[in-house]
Amino acid sequence: MDPDRTVARQRSSLLLLRLLLVALLWSGLALGTFSLGSSPHQVLHDLLSEQQLLEVEDLSLALLQGGRLGPLSLPPDLPDLDPDCRELLLDFAHSTSELTGCLVRSARPVRLCQTCYTLFQQVANKMDNISRAVGNSSESHSCARSLLMADRMQIVVILSEFFNSTWQKANCANCLTNKSEELSNGTVHFLNLFNHTLTCFENNLQGSTHSVLQLRNYSEVCKNCHEKYKALSSLYSEMQKMNELENKAESGTHLCIDVEDAMNITRKLWSRTFNCSVLCSDTVPVIAVSVFILFLPVVFYLSSFLHSEQKKRKLILPKRLKSSTSFANIQENSN
């Protein structure tokens, strides 16, 4: 830009600002709002509100900076995003904001897989669009380079990796179909049974109106909700077995966090809060086998005592003693 032209524009801006102040001064004199001895700063405070004064200051600064209103434009030598690339960045920002809010709202109780999977897919799609995007300029200034590799921080990449890591740790893919478009049938069935179990708990707690300091009697909950809890626990065990069979190569695999948290909540309510118990179907055989093993030593020693041969001790006399005894008997008979 020509320096002489810039100076001329600044002088004209100052002249315009002075004319504006003079007009304000004469209007104040005509209305009698202030006296001739008032200072210009006091004149402005008398005529304008605080917000209007700030606007006038911004206007004067804009005029002094070359007559342009609003923020200064970037120098022409700095690279800027093209409109299409900036739109992709704004779309990614909007989708990540929605996903972050969903994850936080679904933190407790954990419902993030069933609530946020559509938003996660949106973020993944926006990231794919940025990765494939190429600007209208040369390849070195493409949209993907500008947004993903232009600086050390790489904020877009960090955010994308954070969401992917969170999704993998939650193992949300285990709750969804293969294409992650909707919840799987097993997950829907489990969540429905979980909701029915909680509803049963609530319905059987309505009649309990004891004081907080007294021990509540949850016998009705244990009796009426036994079948629902047992069905839910059995379904969870089946889902665990199926997951282990499908992921034999991967050690320590889990179900999705929504299912695990739901089962943990139900078990804590059932065992800790309601103090209910479920007898295992294998309890009787286990007890019978244990008793049999404990009595095995007794049976063994008793049978050994009864069936063993009792050998009597026999006294065997020496031959000499036997002969002398017989000789003594002969002498007694002869006498």
Automatic annotation (TrEMBL):
GO terms for biological process: osteoclast differentiation; transepithelial chloride transport. Residues 1-30 form the signal peptide. The chain crosses the membrane at residues 284-306. Keywords: Membrane, Signal, Transmembrane, Transmembrane helix. One of its GO terms (cellular component) is lysosomal membrane. This is Osteoclastosis associated transmembrane protein 1.
